[in-house]
Give the backbone structure.
Amino acid sequence: MSSPAHAATAGPELGPRRSPLHAARRVFQGDLVSVRVIVAIAVIWIIFQAENGRFLSAVNLTNLVLQITATGLVSVGVVYVLLLGEIDLSVGAVSGVTSALMAVLNVQHGWNPYLAIAAAVALGIAIGVLQGALFSSFGVPSFVITLAGLLAWQGLQLYILGSTGSVNVTNGKIVGLANHFYSDAAGWVFAALVIAAYAGTTLWSLRSRRAAGLADTEATGPIARIVIVAAATIAVVAVLNSDRGVPLAVMILIAFVAGMQYVATRTLFGRHVFTVGGNAEAARRAGIHTNRIRVIVFAISGAMAAIGGVLAASRLLAVDQSTGGSDLLLFAIAGPVIAGTSLFGGRGSVWSALLGAITIGSISNGMDLLALQSSVKFMVTGAVLVVAVVVDALARRNRQTRA
Amino acid sequence: MDSPLLALEGISKRFGAVQALDGVDFEVRAGEVVGLVGDNGAGKSTLVKIISGIYSPDHGEISIDGVPITIRSPDDATRLGIATVYQDLALADNLDVVANLFLGHEELSSGPARVTWQIDETSMEHRSHELLERFAVTIPNVRTEVAALSGGQRQQVAVARSLLGAPKVVLLDEPTAALGVAQTAQVLLLIKQLRERGLGVMVISHNLADVFEVADRIFVLRLGRQAGTFDVNRTTPDEIVAAITGAHLHTEDVSGQGGRT
C-alpha cells in the first residue's frame, strides 16, 4: 500500500494475507509452490531414512546429486518450454544424439574435447531452432513436432554411432565433468561466494527500492531469506565435503539453474517468455515478436538437452544406442511439473528444474537402496506426477474463480 | 477557436460490396469525451480501426491539431498520440500490474546489468505508482497478479497502460461491457479523469446510460453514415435510440420523442 487512499478502496479479497490459515492455503493452492515441494522432499527423505539408515549418509547424498545433474540440466530447458505453455518431447532424444556426436567426434575423430562439446551444444541449438521454427511458422502443435523430432533424432543417433552402436568416453576433460571433486577448502570458498552473491543482490535490491521510496521495504523477509540460503548452502557443502567433496557437476547444475532463473525473471527476454506463455495475443499486440521468442525458447531447450547429454555421457563413461532413452525424457518433464511449473504456461520457476530433479531422484535413489524393482519405481513416480498435475490444475481453477 | 485535437473529414471505407463508412465527419476536442454509438454493423469498429491505424480509409482526411496526417499502422497511431484500449483487454493474467502496464515497453536497468537486458523493476514500479495515483486508480498492490483483480480494476489497468505513452487521444472500445455497477462507476470515473487532464476521449459503447453519464457529445452512426451529433445536455436517450434505429432522421428536431413529425 502506498497511500491511505489505496487502502480505503481495497476489496476484502485483495488485502494483505497474513493469517496462518491463509499462509497454509497459499502453500497448498499454488502461490508458495516451492515450500510445498521442499516439504514433500523432506517427507520422502524421512520415509527412506526410516527404511534404510544409509539413505541420508554423505556417500549416498553425493551419489544422489550426481544422479540428478543430467536430468536437472535437461529440465532447465524444459521449464522454458513449459513457461510458453508448450512441450518438448524431443529433449531425451536430443541429449542422446548430441552426446553421441560429442563422443564420436572426440573418440573416433580425435577432436579437442571442448570443441566436441561445443559441436554437441551447437547441434542441440540447431535442432531446437528447427523445431521452434516449424512449430511457430506452421502452427503445428509443439508436441507433434517434437514427437516427430524424438523419432528422427533417435534415428540420427543410431546413424552417428555407426555399426558398433556404442562409444566409450575416455577423455579426461569430458570424464572430469561428472567425476571431478573439489577440495574441502575450495568447497567452502564456493559456499562463501554463493552466500555473498545472494546476500549482495538481495540487499542491493532492497536498498534501491528504499531509495525509490517504494512500499514493502521491511528488511525482515530478505534477511530471513539470506539466513535460510546461507544455512542451506553451508549444510550442503558440509555434507558433500564429508564424502568426496563438492562435485564439479553440482557446480555446473547450480550455475545453470541460477543463471537461467535470472534470465527468466529479471531480463527482458524472460519477461517476454512469461508474457507469451500467459497471453500470446496480448504479447503480439504489445509489439513482442512472439515467434522469435518461441524459436529462442526451443533453442534453449535443445542446448540444455545437449548439455545434460554431455554430463550423462561423462558420468556413465559411454554413449550407446539407449543413451537419452525413455527415463530421461519422462523425468526431465515430470520434474519441473512436480515442482510447480504449470503445464498451461506462464507460471513457474527454473528452480523447479532443480527441486523436481531432487524429488524424482530421491524417490529413484531411495527405491534402489531398498532394492525395489523398476516396475515399482515407475508406478510410484507416475503416482507422484499425477498428484502434482492435479494440484496444478486445482491451483489454476482456484485462480480462475478468484478472477 | 483552435482546431480540434483529432478531426476526420469525409471518411469512406468500402469492403467489397459493403460500404462500411460513407463520408463521415468526426472530431474530438481536447478535454472532451465523445460517445460513439450505433447499431451492430453501423461502422463503429471500422471507424475505430481507421483511427487506430489498422485500416486506412479509401477517401477522406485525418488531421491532428489541424495538421493533416496519414496513419498507416498501429505504431503510427501510437506515435501520433492516439491510444486504443480494446474490449478484450489484452492483459497477461499471469503477470503483475507493473508488468502489464509496461508490456512491450519495459524499462532496462541503467547500471552494468544492462548488458544482460535486465529489467529495471524499481523504476517501473515507481512510475506505475505515479501513473495510477495521477488518475486516482485504486489498485491496492501493484505487485498483484492481474488474474486476482476485479473486472473493473483490470479495465482500469488496461486504460492506464494506454496512458504511459502520454497520448493526446484515447479510444475506448466498450470499456464497461461485462462490468458490474460499482466497477462501471470506477471506469467512468477514470474516463472523467482523462477529460480533466485535457485528453480527447472517444468511448464506443452499447450502453446509453454509461454514454450519457460520461460523454459531452454523442456521435451516432447508422449504416455507415453519420446520423447526427448530439449535445448530452440537450438530448434524450429516446432521441439517440431513434437516431440509431433510424426511426426519424431530423437531428434538429428535439421534441419528437417517440412520435413522428
